[in-house]
Amino acid sequence: MTTLLKFIHLAAIAVWSGGLIVLPFLFRQRVGLVAGPELFRLHRFVRFIYVGMASPAAFIAIASGTALIFLQTTFLEWFSLKMVLVALMVMLHVVAALTLAHLFEPGRSFGRGAYLALTTAYLVLITAIIWVVLAKPVIDSDQFAAALFTPGGLGQFVREILGETRIPMP
Ligand code: HEM
């Protein structure tokens, strides 16, 4: 069961990561195109990569990863670090959606700087996540947050950083 889930997890991650890495390149192809068959074809293709491939793969990767938590002993610091990096990857997945939502409006384009920044961010994040999962670095959270893995420890850690900020209860 674990092997099958890991297979599904890794296959979904390959499709998700590949989709994210190729998207900025496809956004860049918008430059110089005016309304016409070529622009509509690019729009359809980019939408297919985002809506038909990368997003379902992200959903499957997250669902299979969540199931794996219950089968593997992952209650260690490296896994928390992985989750922080995955959260950033999900946020950048949304950045691609926000870009796509307006890119094909008249007069829009995708600059070289944005192309390089987004591609680099995806590559760095994906490489970092894969390194963390495969190297499983030993991180001693006692050194910077002694109570992190005790019940309520995360809240205490955040309060130590932010001060005694509390959400007012009605
Ligand atoms: C919410 C999202 C995710 C969750 C909950 C999750 C969870 C997990 C868990 C529990 C494992 C098994 C760990 C172990 O072997 O001890 C695993 C394996 C793995 N995950 Fe994820 N994962 C997620 C997303 C990702 C992403 C985005 C990547 C890469 C970009 C990734 C890459 C890997 C790899 C390479 C393995 C295999 C590690 C091995 O077999 O040694 N995961 N994941």
From TrEMBL:
Keywords (alphabetical) are: Membrane, Transmembrane, Transmembrane helix
Pfam name, any one: UPF0093
TM segments? 6-27, 48-71, 83-103, 115-134
InterPro entries (alphabetical): HemJ-like
Q: Name one GO biological process term.
A: protoporphyrinogen IX biosynthetic process
Write the protein's name.
Uncharacterized membrane protein
Give the source species. Answer: Kaistia soli DSM 19436
